[in-house]
Amino acid sequence: MGSIFISGGAAGIGLATAKRFAREGWTVGVYDVSEEALAAVREQHPDFVTGTLDVRDADQWDAALADFTAHTGGQLDVLDNNAGVLVSGDLAELTPAAVKAQIDIDALGVALGAQAAHRYLAATPGSHLVNIASASAIYGQPGIAVYSATKFFVAGLTEALELEWQNDDIRVVSIWPLWAKTALAQTDAKTTKTLGVRLTADDVAEKVWESVHPNAVDRLTRRTSYSVGAQTTVLSNAAKFIPNSVNRLVNKALAQ
User: Catalytic residue among 31, 120, 139, 147, which?
Assistant: First the structure.
């Protein structure tokens, strides 16, 4: 069976993903910055490999991946770059600390994780890097502008690394959910009202599983993005074909 390392894995989508892969017999690594959440995971899932990880720290990434792969004989089939934070509010009203935290965790942390994992993924045939993106990267979202911008970064990084790493036999993909019923959706962002919070953490976890088990079409087309739910699929596909001015009006309406 395979092995998966999940950052921010002790709650929400990360924990749902851990459970999904564990049901299939995979070796699961749950790493998180919250000691309290990790303690709960250890109690409920003693079979998981767990450890502390602040994704903003390159040295902690190196230590966490070395720890996990010590349990797998050096194998890393999937790195799931899941850790993320969201602070809602107009940019002019956010504290500099809130801006920095989102950029450091949601963008820098993803890049550092990919960088640290590369040597393990390259040594594992058919490995995957999975980056959790967001429907907020379809068009910049007012009220969550910094978070939205970091997800544009994740989308761009995914596309670039898919090309950079193709000769290393590492498939790089991103997962695009709309709002899911997790702590991240406990925000006053307007789209939680206009679009609702319809997805569950399990919905996203299932898409992560699907993404690392690509069908023949996915492989042939070198698919890099996986939308979660009908709403995201419709919005992302529409954005590819409608004029930008119309896309702007749609997103303005959804965010008001």
Answer: 147
